[in-house]
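It is worth pausing here to work through a concrete case rather than discussing structure prediction in the abstract. The textbook approach is simple: state the sequence, then state the predicted structure, then interpret. We follow exactly that order.
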Amino acid sequence: MREINVKEIIPIVRKLCIDANYYIGEDVILKLKEFNKKEESETGKGVISILLENYELAAKEQMPSCQDTGIAVIFIELGQDVHLVGGDFISAINEGVRRGYKDGYLRKSMVDDPIIERKNTKDNTPAIIYTDIVPGDKIKITVAPKGGGSENMSEVKMMKAADGIEGVIEFVVDRVKRSGGNPCPPIVVGIGLGGNFEQSALLAKKSLLRPLTEKNDNPIWSKYEDLMLEKINDLGIGPQGLGGRTTALAVHILSKPCHIASMPVAVNIQCHAARHKTAII
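Step two, the predicted structure:
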């Protein structure tokens, strides 16, 4: 059994919140450069070049790459041989978010009530935290700031088994088409298949953590990811919705078993920055 004081978590979460907003992943940069070489629209090429310049300036000047610094979505893999001491685990994570958004001059976007009063909490807490218990004696923390524009274009649909993969493809492509330029394309399309209503949505969001340069481990899903990416880019929405063939950089699928009467499908759309950073304690 390994003992970890929750106070160790606070500075790590703080740094992850800042780094995720300042430093865009190398996988994103590589994909944008790859798509820029084959983009047919001069406007699209120009937009991608501006995005790449923006990433470079954000890192150099130590400032957020986007004004919407997002909800702090945090994925925890907690080793079952870890004994947490020194306080409350969730409170420590939220304190890290609080400090990160303050010290990094990141926009605070959380409101305390979803409908009536909608008062800003002024520190971007509470974070949205998902915890998985895994073998081992380490804690893996991934902070994935999620902007409102892309999140608002996401959707869950309880489909029939008879709809098949053709129905899934139609739903996903239509969801992107209806989204247009709202989620700040070029986007990453996360798809959750199976489980139940809520697990499909979580699978879709988790799928966005996979590096854009990595293929799906399942060759069947990898084939359908490529097919959907092609269909999405044929829509002509293009970078920032201004036209072109680079509407999406990748499609990612995660799947789980489901009930015989159900076929849940979730689409979670991510903006071009695909922000997330990970640390292991």
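Step three, interpretation. The CA atoms of residues 182 and 232 lie 15 Å apart. The radius of gyration is 19 Å.
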